[in-house]
Amino acid sequence: MTVAQTGEFGLIERVTRRLAIPAQNGADADCLLGPGDDAAVVRAPDGRVVACTDVLVEGRHFRRDWSTATDVGHRAAAANLADIAAMGARPTALLIGFCTPRDLPVEWAEEFADGMAAEAALVGASVVGGDTVASPSLTIAVTALGDLQRREPVTRAGARPGDIVAMAGRLGWAAAGYTILSRGFRSPGALVNAFRRPEVPYAAGILAAELGATAMIDVSDGMLADVGHIAAASGVHIDLRRANFTLPRQMADSANALGVDPYEWIFTGGEDHALVATFPPDVMLGGEWAEIGVVRAGEGVTVDGTRWTRSAAGWDHFRQE
Amino acid sequence: MTVAQTGEFGLIERVTRRLAIPAQNGADADCLLGPGDDAAVVRAPDGRVVACTDVLVEGRHFRRDWSTATDVGHRAAAANLADIAAMGARPTALLIGFCTPRDLPVEWAEEFADGMAAEAALVGASVVGGDTVASPSLTIAVTALGDLQRREPVTRAGARPGDIVAMAGRLGWAAAGYTILSRGFRSPGALVNAFRRPEVPYAAGILAAELGATAMIDVSDGMLADVGHIAAASGVHIDLRRANFTLPRQMADSANALGVDPYEWIFTGGEDHALVATFPPDVMLGGEWAEIGVVRAGEGVTVDGTRWTRSAAGWDHFRQE
């Protein structure tokens, strides 16, 4: 059955049924009014709400023959929840703008909703609302909300010379998985699955804020590009130490087999949604946070003191690949 | 110049420049951190935030040869701000997911942003963030946030037998404008412009909540369809009185010239974003609110006691027109 056959309201009803709203299960949940009205109502106990929007387009951010609907749901949620985590906030809610061709199987939409709800549940958030429209292409716009829990937001602009740079999460895994799939292979599974479903270090975002992080970003466009955003916003130079990036065995093997420099994946691959933050030099890092570089006076990003020139740093969604 | 030529970050910079963020102009504004970071930070003084998402697809919700970019910006904002108003909340912020073909002129995106910012400014809200991606079709997902100002949200589910039904705003104007444009005409301007830019009775939403409205909805799918949503959610029957709907002269004339029943526009046309609410029978209506019917025990919606059968009530975005 296609979404054209169920109709707009039929689709909304089917998808809503899959979204377990924690509000119905306990008074602590953030969703006070879920899908089905003009708007949702979400708790914002801090008195401020953190909000971001991220869009996934079929053929650009995902392919239905490479990822299951559940995978895409996980990824659409993760891309947004990571942005909330990168502010040092706790994600509370997601909204979906679901633009779909009429011939999309209803099961795809249902399994996508399952994936979104499951990823949101990892951080105690839920899908509280959205909109569905018919569209020539499958495009999924997600908005995430979060609560700062009385902390100040960690922006990109606070890094100071002398700060240390640290990261949490994985880098290069999704890019490796993408390259493997692009070449027509399906393994190693760990790398391919990392492209399908990022493993975001959500808890590390709040931890960083508590540890006094001076700046933070989630790596969605590529390590060098995103660290460059911190450098630009803070007016500093960031130098990364290549020796601090360990190369997982599977990644080294795949890079070798494919004839690719694996550090290209690590430094310029996006979409693992690792977190990178800067901290005062006397910080005692904990949790998943590991030191990778240092903040200096100046501008731009270097690796071991040199500009990375192997390829264009990062990813511009409008350029032709 | 096209958006492909400016690139993603160039487009974001150009559009952001157009978005006057009131936070930069005064301490009262709701935007605490605007575009340019992983997420925005918006005041939510009530401790709860109202949130909704609404998507516009080119060719379905707008046409670039029928509306200017500024018009489309107004409409994209209005569709979402009206949903916030229909909860009895004060809109505070908008986020945009802007999915664009590479050949879109940059000026279109800039003027679209101008329209969104101008519509948001009508209610003191601002555009605080978003995402831009390349896409085969022009699709605009907007999320709106709002503050309840310590009032309870007015849902669709509270209408009780004996309540009166009232509306604020205009009905049928956008549908008339759409019909006129569809037939290749461009006048009367008042109707055509109503399709291009709805005039949403924003203040009436908060007033209704203050007057004790028991249920409220914004008319986006058509009067009968949306009143039907109140009836279904509340488990009541709603009877509208046709005599309470005055037929504007321009609408009567255009309907006559086009051979259309103007009440078809009024009862089934969407996208004027009028507000319809139910109130306790002893309410003293004020502002733009005018009585149009009564709530009874039972189910469904009637006009003068009869089911409206002239055409399908309302609008399902997945059905073929």
Automatic annotation (TrEMBL), chains A, B:
KW Kinase (keyword) present: yes
Residues reported to bind Mg(2+) 4: D38, D83
Boundaries of every PurM-like N-terminal domain copy: 36-146
Binding site for Mg(2+) 3: D38, D83, D218
Cited CDD domains: ThiL
Reactions this protein catalyses: thiamine phosphate + ATP = thiamine diphosphate + ADP
Entry keywords, A to Z: ATP-binding, Kinase, Magnesium, Metal-binding, Nucleotide-binding, Thiamine biosynthesis, Transferase
Binding residues annotated for substrate, in chain numbering: H61, E271, W315
Pathway(s) where this gene product acts: Cofactor biosynthesis; thiamine diphosphate biosynthesis; thiamine diphosphate from thiamine phosphate: step 1/1
Binding residue positions for Mg(2+) 1: T53, D54, D131
Coiled-coil ranges (or none): none
Gene Ontology biological process terms in this record: thiamine biosynthetic process; thiamine diphosphate biosynthetic process
Additional notes on this entry: Reaction mechanism of ThiL seems to utilize a direct, inline transfer of the gamma-phosphate of ATP to TMP rather than a phosphorylated enzyme intermediate.
Family in the record: Belongs to the thiamine-monophosphate kinase family.
Name this protein carries in UniProt: Thiamine-monophosphate kinase
Organism the protein comes from: Phytomonospora endophytica
Encoding gene, per UniProt annotation: thiL
